[in-house]
Design goal:
Layout (H helix, E strand, L loop, with lengths): L1 H37 L4 H37 L14 H6 L7 H9 L1
Helix pairs in contact: 1-2
Bound molecules: zinc ion.
The site of zinc ion (ZN) has 8 residues, from α4.
């Protein structure tokens, strides 16, 4: 069974690395998008664009957080604690990890946390 677990972890690791790459790449393309937005003289456009810029800021914020989660998960993979819930110490279900490879909590713990 150990080989299976190892293979599974390798799959998660690959998914995490891919996600991290995606996040880093989209962060890099951002300054250009912002620069294009600022260049319109039209006030109506300007109003629309400041909303768009706000959205970009929110996305950047989310991305930074997600990147941190992904890097934390990669660290747990190398430490051998990956897939263990930080709340109760139980194993996080493979289905959850498949959907959310950087998950730190099992579903019951996550639900408890979002309620509080
Ligand atoms: Zn838990």
């Amino acid at each position: 069974m150990q080989t299976t677990l190892k293979t599974r972890k390798e799959t998660y690791r690959t998914a995490l690395l891919k996600k991290r790459q995606e996040l880093l790449l989209s962060a890099r393309s951002e300054p250009e998008a912002l620069a294009t937005n600022v260049q319109s003289p039209d006030m109506v456009d300007f109003a629309v664009q400041s909303v768009e810029q706000d959205l970009t800021a929110v996305t950047a914020n989310l991305r930074t957080r997600l990147l941190k989660e992904v890097e934390g998960a990669l660290k747990r993979v190398s430490q051998g604690t990956y897939g263990i819930c930080e709340g109760c110490g139980e194993e996080i279900s493979p289905n959850r990890l498949k959907a959310l490879p950087w998950a730190r909590y099992c579903i019951p713990c996550q639900e408890m946390r979002s309620r509080n």
